[in-house]
UniProtKB/TrEMBL annotation:
PROSITE patterns: DEAH_ATP_HELICASE, HELICASE_ATP_BIND_1, HELICASE_CTER. This is RNA helicase. Keywords: ATP-binding, Helicase, Hydrolase, mRNA processing, Nucleotide-binding. Belongs to the DEAD box helicase family. DEAH subfamily. It comes from Betta splendens (Siamese fighting fish).
């Protein structure tokens, strides 16, 4: 409606950034690189692009703004289109992996950092852009860090090929502005003075130093929400939890009083005893996201249960109370297992302060930490380690190589990853045939870089395509690219019902191959007359499946384009379809092979020899079949090391591939890298 649009524009005049509008625009004009810093919520993300637009920066090209998180890119674009009074996707648009909402008219484009990285692959000079804004740089996401180095390389010298100069703005909530400025040729720093109200923090007694591997924090957080709701003055609550599963579990627990309401289907009425419960995580549907920003109705307290996304990327007004679980879910390279694993770890102290600060934007607030002071002192590090120093670099190293950055060790990193991580990435790329022994990108590597998927999965997909059976792998890749297909209600009775349905789905394709189960679900739902009803009946997330359908279409488009453009490899195979499917998987997952050790414990074959267990969510969890060799998609570490999405294989299928895990001398690859 007109009034809400007008209001949005008016509101923006009260933001701290507003008074600095003219000076900011001048600062952007004055230098190629600029660092902008200011408290979260001061208006950097939503306002600066509009100021630049008004100042005429879009005459020659677009303004691009990157975000490390997809939800942030989408919601912020929505907000800004509202403030600029245009339809989303026209002047203001967004692009995230597998979802492009831009058009010819788009001049202000919000996107994930991964998307901009892909655009550089297609157009290394970023000729479409007049301004590139890297936002949320303090989060130190892998792609943003790589972009920092690339933009420095590309734009440090005046580029003659461009008809108009580019401006690069780097925005950060706090921290390290000197370091950023020094990195970007000692560029100017613009600071937006913020205002903050005091936040009183209290420690709890529920999580102590011994509880780093327990999942009790979900229940504790719920208890705290109810306590705050019944004993504190009016004001909304923001809860920090770890991920979608934990958030849904917490919401289920909060809803237990009103059992008939299932928020996954009834978005309309989510209140229990005057408490409006709103989950917020990465793959949220947009109609639910919108509600989060709306003021709570009179007499009702809003409670947003969120991941770290609400720490700095999104600002929700009206929050007075923070409940901090003290944990975050992170993808970390785990040296015990020798691969990237998703794990729940204590947050850093600076992160905890950032979380608490969310309560003090508009008035004094309170932060309830469910952990003890001892936990704070003993378990929480001072700062969060940048992602580039703790995750696999395989995909970005391939991107860099394809961009002609041959020496990936001496690339300008803001903080260098350990050399062994780079070597590990080179080794993996060699194993997937993406680079040759001298570290040069192969024909296959050039095909692989086009897919926004994990290189192993891409390898399997390309193998399948060369054998003419890409349909199966396209669906599986799509299913593995979206979050949580299977609903886990938490409630014991409902859980039983869901388990039964899920087992029945797995049984349809033999009951021993989780990849095949994903394929079965995909096909069964796609061919159903009433797919959403089918999902509800089978305890499957309809929303996740809908995205999987769209992802599949997009992967197919990429594949078709490549098949038309380049010499695409062609191979033949005789054998049955089931074997063909699993053999294709082996091509991409031979780095994730495990062999039965004792009982139900398996041992990985990548040289680390880690002992792993099949996750209870796998259809192979309870099976005693003679499983000797298996491949798996990913690893989850809690009190034990679990592997998820598992498939039995035969040793013969990987026999010729396994030596590749050991044969290559990483120093040979790296000596070329140093050339
Ligand atoms: P910063 O980038 O400095 O952290 P933002 O530009 O993200 O600040 O936020 C500025 C203001 O805009 C905040 O008060 C925030 O609540 C508001 N805002 C941002 N997105 C939305 C939205 N989708 N709906 C309503 N308000 C929003
Ligand atoms: Mg911001």
């Amino acid at each position: 409606s007109k009034t809400s649009r007008g209001d949005a524009k008016d509101e923006s005049k009260h933001l701290p950034i507003y008074r600095h509008k003219a000076k900011l625009v001048e600062a952007v004009k004055a230098s190629t690189f600029l660092v902008v810093t200011g408290e979260t919520g001061s208006g950097k993300t939503t306002q600066l692009p509009q100021y630049l637009y008004e100042a005429g920066f879009c005459k020659n090209g677009r303004i691009g703004i990157t975000q490390p998180r997809r939800v942030a890119a989408i919601t912020v674009a929505q907000r800004v289109s509202q403030e600029m009074q245009c339809t989303l996707g026209r002047e203001v648009g967004y692009q995230v992996r597998f979802d492009d909402c831009t058009s010819q008219d788009t001049v202000v484009k919000y996107m994930t950092d991964g998307c901009l990285l892909r655009e550089i692959l297609a157009d290394p000079g970023l000729s479409q852009y007049s301004v590139v804004i890297l936002d949320e740089v303090h989060e130190r996401s892998l792609n943003t860090d790589i972009l920092l180095g690339l933009l420095k390389k590309i734009f440090s010298k005046a580029t003659k090929s461009r008809s108009f100069p580019v401006r690069v703005v780097v925005m950060s909530a706090t921290l390290e502005t000197d370091k950023l400025s020094a990195f970007l040729d000692n560029c100017p720093v613009f600071t937006i003075p913020g205002r903050m109200f005091p936040v009183t923090c209290t420690f709890g007694s529920a999580v102590g130093p011994k509880d780093t591997e327990s999942t009790a924090y979900v229940k504790e957080v719920v208890k705290m929400v109810l306590e705050v709701h019944t004993s504190e003055m009016a004001g909304d609550i923001l809860v920090f939890l770890t991920g979608q599963t934990e958030i849904e579990r917490a919401c289920d627990l909060l809803f237990e009083k009103a059992e008939s309401i299932d928020y996954r289907y009834d978005v309309q009425d989510q209140t229990v005893d005057g408490l409006l419960i709103l989950p917020l995580y990465g793959s949220m549907p947009t109609d639910q996201q919108r509600q989060i920003f709306q003021p709570s109705p009179p007499g009702i307290r809003k409670c947003v249960v969120a991941t770290n996304i609400a720490a700095t990327s999104l600002t929700i007004n009206g929050i007075i109370y923070i409940i901090d679980s003290g944990f975050v879910k992170q993808l970390n390279h785990n040296s015990r297992v020798g691969m990237d694993v998703l794990e729940v770890v204590p947050i850093s102290k600076s992160e905890a302060q950032q979380r608490a600060g969310r309560a003090g934007r508009t008035s004094a607030g309170k932060c309830f930490r469910i952990y003890t002071e001892e936990f704070w002192q003993k378990c929480m590090p001072e700062y969060t380690i940048p992602e580039i120093q703790r995750t696999s670099l395989t995909a970005v190293v391939l991107t860099l190589k394809c961009l002609g950055v041959h020496d990936v060790i001496r690339f300008p990193y803001l903080d260098s990853p350990e050399e062994r991580f780079i070597l590990e990435a080179l080794k993996q790329l060699y194993q997937f045939d993406a680079i040759d022994r001298r570290g040069r990108v192969t024909q296959l590597g050039k095909l692989m870089v086009e897919f926004p998927l994990h290189p192993g999965l891409t390898r399997a997909l390309l193998k399948a395509a060369s054998l003419g059976c890409e349909d199966m792998l396209l669906s599986v890749a799509a299913m593995l690219s979206v979050e949580n297909i299977f609903i886990r209600p938490g409630h014991p009775e409902k859980q039983k019902e869901a388990d039964k349905k899920h087992r029945a789905l797995a049984a349809k394709c033999g009951g021993t191959n989780d990849f095949a189960t994903l394929l079965t679900v995909f096909q069964a739902c796609k061919s159903s007359d009433r797919p959403s009803a089918w999902c509800k009946e089978n305890w499957i997330h309809w929303r996740a499946l809908k995205s999987a359908f769209s992802v599949e279409t997009q992967l197919r488009e990429i594949l078709l384009r490549l098949q038309q453009m380049r010499d695409f490899p062609v191979e033949t195979f005789d054998g049955n379809k089931n074997e063909l499917f699993r053999r294709c998987l082996c091509t991409g997952y031979f780095t994730n092979v495990a062999r039965r050790s004792v009982g139900k414990v398996f041992c990985t074959m990548d040289g680390h020899g880690s002992m792993v267990n099949i996750h209870p969510s796998s259809s192979l969890f309870d099976q005693d079949a003679e499983l000797n060799w298996i491949i798996f998609h990913d690893v989850l570490v809690t009190s034990r090391v679990y592997i998820r999405t598992v498939c039995p294989i035969r040793y013969e299928w990987v026999k010729d591939l396994l030596p590749k895990l050991h044969e290559v001398d990483v120093y040979e690859l790296s000596s070329v890298a140093r050339e």
